[in-house]
Structures
1.
Amino acid sequence: EEEAKPKDEL
Amino acid sequence: MNIFRLFGDLSHLAAIIILLLKIWKSRSCAGISGKSQILFAIVFTTRYLDLLTSFISLYNTSMKMIYIGCSYATVYLIYAKFRATYDGNHDSFRVEFLIVPVGGLAVLINHDFSLLEILWTFSIYLESVAILPQLFMISKTGEAETITTHYLFCQGLYRALYLINWIWRFYFEGFFDMIAIVAGVVQTILYCDFFYLYVTKVLKGKKLSLPA
């Protein structure tokens, strides 16, 4: 399961 | 940050500014779908709520704020300042047919069942179809002003460059985000027909008009 990571893309 | 991502962002920024300037300079929003612009304002608002929770970089924060600010300015110009020029009769796409299924999909298919993550997912899905009212409007009137086609081209180019960026990131960073990729592919496909018309007509100096 993927953990929520900061989104660096716009 | 690779070059495709950077040029994708710049292309996106160019699209937003082209549209703002077009409306401002011509004092008219004729031919522009206010509904698409409202959808984009919703997209940016729901996606960039992380401005309040996490800091990534100065670039990231400032671009997000510019996108949000410009999208609200565009909506303001269309629905308030130059409302008299807004072509509401031709802007008849039913946006609830986009928002409701997209909202449902975001609740069902997401990376994490939390409010911020669902809103982010919603924004990704919504962005992929947010241009439909604009394309629908062009198909109804059968034509688009050349500057409007430049706007659309930059919007489509932005997504196409993001696709290359994701291929790059997958090979060199092992990074991929399935939700963003699938939505990005859908979004890019929606522009393909338009790209064809842009290259075969607008770049040859002709106005974009559809056969009757």
Note: The interface with chain B takes residues 2-4, 6-10 of chain A (CB under 8 Å).
2.
Amino acid sequence: TQPPSGTLSPQASALLQTLGLSPPPGPPPTRPVPSVMWRLFRRGPEAAETQGSESAGPEMPQEPQPLPCHVEELGVPGNIVRHVLDGGASAPPEPALGSLCLEKPLFFNLSFLDPKEQLTLVRLELNFGAPGNLAPAQDWELSLSYAQGRLWGQPLYWHHREVLLRRTVPTLHDPLYFDMLALGRLGNSTFPQNLSLVLEMLPGRDSDLPRGLCTKLGHSLEASLLVVTLDPQLCQPTSRKR
Amino acid sequence: RATYLAPLDSPDPPCKARRLYINFREVGWHNWIIAPRGFMANYCQGHCFFPTATKISSLNHAVMQSLMHSVAPATTPPPCCVPVKLSPISVLFYDNSDNVVLRHYEDMVVDECGCR
């Protein structure tokens, strides 16, 4: 158990480390649980609340098990799924210039990844929420850049900035998903522990959008990463034959 | 021929799975484990005397050890009653980086016990 001071005993730390758990040190988190995480949990290997409650004996009914170490809904191998919020979400979007409607830096701290974990999916989700429903139903030109070496005090200026993708999206009403491992620059190398991206959006047609709408879009944008990893040590064969 | 069978007055019942509910509130993890609130982990307890060891999932070695224990209890201990079949669970929790994490754990629920 956790002492009042918030520090863990060595035994508790060792136990948590064995299970790969790193509890928050402070008060209980209030962050809502994303629906995708609930969905993945409910599709897990069991309904844990009821598992084994029928009888504790060799007569327990056997139900078909999903593939081990495979996240069926996402179609990738893995046994750890993390939902990571944009670390720069609280920063207001930068005033865009020219035809740009939105230019927003996104930061994701992935330093918690253990070297023995193999990345199998890094999916960026952009959700414009309710104000997105106010946006005109029209094409949007979207670009995503990988940025390195941010200049101090200059949120949108970088030593190195490289466009990862340009895409036309028909609407902002639905969440947008991007497989970051499929983008050559990131997928072909060691994934950065601190991922800095710059999102740029402009209307696909020559429309004169009010600046207020662009500001609303920037404020309503929720960016997150769904990170799936496979820790082979957690995925042992179910039976061994000699 | 073994003439010494399971002691009729043995204090231990035969090896089998017993109910054990791991309650995350009781261990003080309920503030950051989102789901489940707990799970039926079970555990194994009971004796592996001869012929019990022949009636449940046991290694051949354990059967022979139980037989030897029945004739020479002072020098040969009985086999151990341990989990032989387990199943996984998933746990949804907050980590110390404010991420929501779903982690899959193998071998968390005892489905069957045997002698080893």
Note: Strands of chain A lie at 70-71, 76-77, 80-85, 102-109, 118-127, 140-150, 158-169, 176-179, 194-203, 222-230.
